[in-house]
Amino acid sequence: MDTKVRHGAPVVSPERALRVFTAPQRNPGTPLDLDLVRALRINRSAVERRAATIPTRRTVKKEWQAAWLLRAITCMDLTTLQGDDTPTNVLRLCAKAKNPVRRDLLDALGATELGIRVGAVCVYHAFIPLAVEALAGSGIPVAAVSTGFPAGLNPLPQRIEEIKASVAAGAEEIDVVITRGHALAGAWEALYDEVHAFREACGAAHMKVILGTGDLATLVNVARASQVAMMAGADFIKTSTGKETVNATLPVGVVMTRQIRDYHERTGFAVGFKPAGGIRKAKQALEWLILMKEELGDRWLAADLFRLGASALLTDIERQLEHYVTGRYSAAHRHPMV
To answer: Disulfide engineering: 120 pairs with which of 22, 59, 143, 230, CB 3.0-4.6 Å?
Structure first.
């Protein structure tokens, strides 16, 4: 089927789809401030009211929606973390990462020359060399989950060696898992030391710290764990592994982004944010982008400070883009993921 822009539908301008920002200085971490951590309090009702306004306060339609969805693609960690992953699946995922939107749709949107690609490809350690080879020359980094993902309960020396092995294999980003028990017990010194050790093992590789917020019981624990992870040198804080019963939620996002804002105001260092788990629809991606814009500003709408951990999401975004171009929704199989 030929794809044409339906009558009256403007194309997406490069300025709306991709804005280039200066790379932020990497967060070196700070000494642990227990007084600050223990003094944190969260008004759950206020947070939930704020989160409830995010899908309703702004309406992104037509060419603006198309531009925002292209932006969401560039901030996506395209992920496969299944027990039945195979080399073939990983190779197909990498091919999709380099060409995430059908060429005919990009042509119709006027976005062919924007170089739309995802933020990273996230895989298990075993597939790092394969993904690195498949993505060579694309500029797309390989991210690897580590430290006993998803439970994070392996012995600490083993988890540290796992990080080093993944970095040596070519991973440029490491998604580490904290020991949730430290946060639940209020053992903030232990959590700080753990994350600090992970940061040292990562070296030049950027570290995303997975808090497993669905396991942390309270928003106060989420706030405190966020601050401790940033003090210990996190480049990103991430909501979930995607394997918990409850994964990324907007109330948790409000709490974590406000801790990022507080840390940035106190230290001058910008830390990234990554919601992950359960983000499958384009509408959800827009909600997370709106949250970032309203709580942290435009600077946090780029891949170096914002990522969406997802797999099925890209298919729905492509369907929405085709609807913008043609006025019709296509079947999901026209936009295969792998």
So the answer is: 143
